[in-house]
């Protein structure tokens, strides 16, 4: 991607979870280059520091802080750090996640609890941590990265992940309905398969490429293709959008049969 130097997010102080790599890193980069000040957080500290440094090298304002989304005290510390370094948080992207387990009948209680802990309790902790500042200032935007897998459609695996993502979308709607009159908006992004490290690490790319061949756009997404939607939702351009879910899945939930595979 070429050089970006915009102003769509000027005046935004953002916290992003899971920003060391993948989609979170891409959102952090675009946010910073569009004028936001960005606190990147993750549990991969070395990589997180490198990602923040690379954004600074491109002219963005970004710092990194360790944050495990399952730790309430880590969330408190991140909100305080953002206020101290940049100003009160008014933009939060809930993005971190843990890879899901198997299909429901094979999901152990331990896997279920761990999946829900990172993928649903984590977003809940984050939203609850940023809301007091946002409500006090009547200035807040929450962007939750959910998935099309769970809220919109289902694959025959990772039941815990699907349940957590559907729950995250419910939290977004809850916030939109409950705090809209206090100047707070919340929206969910529902991506389809994205070419990020998790797919590569899990050896998933060949599987996903096969699935992607059957979706209308015939390929998986690059991280920036999802991150630009998060830029729109994080900016004042989306000022009348709340409680919405944005599908960024190449049309995969639109079709009931694989397309482009008839031959
Ligand atoms: N890649 C896809 O195909 C795909 C599809 C749909 C939705 N998504 C969603 O996109 C988001 C980003 O995923 P990605 O593909 O970039 O994955 P990724 O694994 O490359 O990045 C996720 C990041 O979350 C961090 N993380 C994991 N556990 C954490 C914890 N307990 N506390 C804090 N950080 C933690 C990881 O260290 C990592 O940096 C996720 O919410 C995921 O569900 C991804």
Give the arrangement of secondary structure elements.
Elements: E1 13-16, H1 22-33, E2 37-42, H2 45-57, E3 61-66, H3 72-85, E4 91-94, H4 109-137, E5 140-145, H5 159-179, E6 184-191, H6 197-201, H7 205-212, H8 223-234, E7 245-248
Parallel strand pairs: 1-2, 1-4, 2-3, 4-5, 5-6, 6-7
Helix pairs in contact: 1-2, 1-8, 3-4, 4-5
Nicotinamide-adenine-dinucleotide (NAD) is lined by residues 17-18, 20-24, 42-44, 67-70, 95-98, 118, 145, 147, 191, 193-194, 196-199.
Low-confidence stretches: none
Q: How many domains would you count in the coordinates? A: 1
The H/E string reads EHEHEHEHEHEHHHE
Major sheet strand order: 3-2-1-4-5-6-7
Q: Quickly give the CATH architecture.
A: 3-Layer(aba) Sandwich
Walk me through the structure.
- With 263 residues, the chain is an alpha/beta fold.
- The chain has one domain (13-248): NAD(P)-binding Rossmann-like Domain (Rossmann fold, 3-Layer(aba) Sandwich), CATH 3.40.50.720.
- Helices cover 43% and strands 14% of the residues.
- It is built from eight helices and seven strands, in the order E-H-E-H-E-H-E-H-E-H-E-H-H-H-E.
- It has a seven-stranded parallel sheet with strand order 3-2-1-4-5-6-7, sandwiched between helices.
- Helix 1 packs parallel to helix 2 (45-57).
- The radius of gyration is 18 Å and the shape is globular.
- It starts with 12 loop residues before the first strand and ends in a 15-residue tail after the last strand.
- The relative contact order is 0.14.
- Nicotinamide-adenine-dinucleotide is lined by residues 17-18, 20-24, 42-44, 67-70, 95-98, 118, 145, 147, 191, 193-194, 196-199.
